Amino acid sequence: MTTKPAAAAARATVYGYPRQGQSRELKKAIEGHWKGRVTADFLRETAAGLRRSNWRQLAAAGVDEVPTGDFSYYDHVLDTTVMVGAIPERHRAAVEADALGGYFAMARGTQDVAPLEMTKWFDTNYHYLVPELGPDTVFTADSAKQVAELEEAHALGLTARPVLVGPVTYLLLSKPAPGVPADFDPLTLLDRLLPVYAEVLADLRAAGAGWVQLDEPALVQDRTPAELNAAARAYRDLGALTDRPKLLVASYFDRLGEALPVLAKAPVEGLALDFTERAAANLDALAAVGGLPGKRLVAGVVNGRNIWVNDLSASLTTLGTLLGLADRVDVAASCSLLHVPLDAAAERDIDPQILRWLAFARQKTAEVVTLAKGLTRGTGAIAAQLAANKVDLASRANSPITRDPAVRARAEAVTDADTRRAQPYPERATAQRAHLGLPLLPTTTIGSFPQTAELRTARADLRAGRIDTGAYEERIRTEIQEVLAFQEKAGLDVLVHGEPERNDMVQYFAEQLTGYLATQHGWVQSYGTRYVRPPILAGDISRPEPMTVRWTAYAQSLASRPVKGMLTGPVTMLAWSFVRDDQPLGDTARQVALALRDEVNDLETAGTSVIQVDEPALRETLPLRAADHTAYLAWATEAFRLTTAGVRPDTQIHTHMCYAEFGDIVQAIDDLDADVISLEAARSHMQVARELAAHGYPREAGPGVYDIHSPRVPSAEEAADLLRTGLRAIPAERLWVNPDCGLKTRAWPETRTSLENLVTAARTVRAEL
Ligand code: GLN
Ligand code: ZN
Asked: Which residues are recorded as binding L-methionine (predicted)?
């Protein structure tokens, strides 16, 4: 008889934790500091206190190895920029004079100096600050933050693992600095960067780090052979260092694909892989390379991006399979818990039964610990948790909230015909021209107008019970009157009601749709000190009653020209919410689309001839791997068409997109079959107009001529010049004149002048035709 050596006890760990604190203390301290009300010392103490309390919470929950270095005053990629000394030239003096002040200057800019550009962290709703590199970049190691935070955790008597953005991902997320040729490839700096990482690793080892985690999520995207070679070289070189801690290379958000064999072969001591649904292929791929003999595998089996309870028994099955593939298997969430709210137990307004389906950071940590225990000691050791979990999963699966037979029957009955307008575009265009009677180069706006102080006060008063709904709605009507009066006077052609009744373009609809949940405290960091509370798509979606019709109809009753109805599209409703994990995204999108379709049709019945369905998130939700794009775009564009196809040919459907380059989704934009699209374009000098033209886009388009991201007022001449540029790509019969996006973040004075200039520009250019 042989006795197997006892498997090593599985450790529980996470890669990062929400930074803000229970009551968003961090946000308050940082913003207070910006306003000069909070000293740097007080801010530092607040931050240190939050880190300590997070680590204590994690340790008390049973986490064996806590992460350090994941904390940030603003963004962990910016922290990495500081760590490697890649401070942009224009910020150097400020950083040298005052490290903290200079740090915030890089993040937010100052009166004189532009900040770093901000962009989305992979396909999450977190934004990072893009490093700016060039052939002259000199890297220097600054390990102070990493070392200090490790020492803080050690001082609490904890086993800690510093987490750093890995060198390959850091370079792949960078862009050429201003003035550097656009074709400069930051990856060519790898050999210069690695010695800096070597120095940081040595410092961390000297400070007592046993393991250091290097995050390489960029390797889950499609990578060229040259990029994969760079990854191989990076970890061969770092692995060959003698003065270093053990290295754990982490990836998440998707499958590693061709990067898996590269990392499996690398001379590092461990890999952390995502094993949640979207990365499920990692399991077979790991088996195919013969597992990780002699290595530590950290298995991300608890989804770090959704808010649903884990299926503990399914995760245990995965973990059991993995036991055969690595020397030791530890348990983790699939990615940093930064992307989920802190604590579901803080929610008071959610039905206790439904609350049991939800897991935020705190609950996910407990799941990780339970799974590690089950893996080490067998299911008997976690029998109670498994039984309770089974009950919760069954209650969710069988709930009338998640299964509304009427919604399901309707979604199943959708035919292709339901997703197609009755007439092809050219015929619709003729009908709409006759119906609307618009001039060439028609002017319009994207929907929202400045949210005034009176409006904000009224909203706060309503929430606090100081005024009733009647008084609040009176305020909304007044705002609508003012917005319409201005637009008529300014001479805009297609008007909007200004969206004063909306706090947020997704939340406003989520609150009115059955099947959506709102949280009270479910804050998630979007960027810096900005936190959002995404609603939760929890069940089957239906619309108990019209959502926007009465405000649009009211606005139309005041106007002599067409007022555009304004809705948020199905893809964006998903993208900025937490989505269901118990059915394909396309199914959820279809349910939302059907609810919105009813709204579109009701708007038409109420006399609205122009209806805009915003899809700013269409591009940003594109899957990380190109192989998955077709399937995504198929359901996404179908959902949009299902929303909009029920109207008459002479009703004009608009859509709107921003925040992105659109070059790679022009076909998808075409597939929406919207009559008119408005797009962000002012900063790129109408680039998108040329892209649409190159594709042969046959419909009408309004590339923005007014950059609404800054208070700067574009002159009429400047807007006219942009229009002339637009006309070189799009003929006058199909060109619209509008700002880049909504005006809700702007103030009235600059908005007024900018829109007046926009109308002047349209008139000037019309006269030249
Ligand atoms: N209609 C919305 C608005 O004007 C669109 C916002 C957006 O695209 N993000 O505010
Ligand atoms: Zn926009």
From this structure: 446-448, 499, 614
Tens digit of each residue's pLDDT (9 = 90 or more) over 418-446? 999 999 999 999 999 999 999 999 999 99
What's the confidence (pLDDT) of residue 713?
Answer: 94
Please give the sequence-ordered ranges of beta strands (E in DSSP) within 407-523, or none if there are none: 514-517
Tell me the CA–centroid distance for residue 731 and ligand 2, in Å.
Answer: 23
Specify the residue with its C-alpha closest to ligand 1, atom 1.
447
Tokens representing 184 are 């400069």
Predicted pLDDT of residue 111: 85
What distance in Å separates the CA atoms of residue 252 and residue 250, rounded to the nearest whole number?
7
Q: Which helix (H) or strand (E) holds 365?
A: helix 361-377
As given in the structure block, the two tokens for residue 272 are 């952390």
Q: What are the DSSP calls for 185-240, one per residue?
A: -GGGGHHHHHHHHHHHHHHHHHTT-SEEEEE-GGGGS---HHHHHHHHHHHHHHHH
pLDDT < 70: residue spans in the chain: 1-7
- pTM equals 0.96
Neighbours of 400 (CB within 10 A): 9
Give 132's strand partners. 175
Collect all residues with Cβ–Cβ distance below 8 Å to 30 and sequence separation of at least 6.
38, 43, 73, 74, 528, 529
Both structure tokens of 370: 């339970």
Report how far residue 76's alpha carbon sits from residue 121's, in angstroms, rounded to the nearest whole number.
11
Amino acid identity for residue 96 in this structure? E
Chain-centroid distance, C-alpha 5: 45
Looking from the CA of residue 502, the nearest atom of ligand 1 is 10
- pLDDT, position 711: 85
Ligand in closest contact with the CA of 751: 1
Question: What token pair was written down for 599?
Answer: 């709204």
Place of tokens 């009270």: 520
609: Cβ contacts below 8 Å, ≥ 6 apart: 435, 436, 562, 650, 651, 652
Distance separating alpha carbons of residues 389 and 314, to the nearest angstrom: 11
DSSP state letters, 602-658:
HHHHTT--EEEEE-TTTTTTS-SSGGGHHHHHHHHHHHHHHHHTTS-TTSEEEEEE-
Nearest CA to ligand 1 atom 9: 616
Would you state the structure tokens that stand for residue 340, as one six-digit string?
Answer: 């989920």
Cα 403 off chain centre by: 28
Contact yes or no for 628/558 (Cβ under 8 A): no
Respond yes or no: is residue 435 known to be catalytic: no
Q: State whether the Cα torsion 579-583-586-592 is positive or negative.
A: negative
Eight-class DSSP state of 660? S
What is the distance between the alpha carbons of residues 644 and 421, in angstroms, rounded to a whole number? 8
Which residues sit in the known binding site for 5-methyltetrahydropteroyltri-L-glutamate?
24-27, 120, 125, 576, 620
Residue 588 pLDDT: 98
571 forms bridges with which residues in the sheet?
Answer: none
Q: Please indicate whether residue 506, judged by its CB atom, sits closer than 6 Å to ligand 1.
A: no
What pLDDT, on a 0 to 100 scale, did the predictor assign at position 662?
85
pLDDT for 7 equals 60
Under DSSP, the state recorded for 563 is B
Distance CA 201, CA 205 (A): 6
Candidate from 505, 506, 568, 613 with most ligand 1 atoms within 8 A of CB, to mutate: 505
**Residues forming the annotated binding site for L-methionine?**
446-448, 499, 614
Among the options 91, 339, 654, 709, which is catalytic? 709
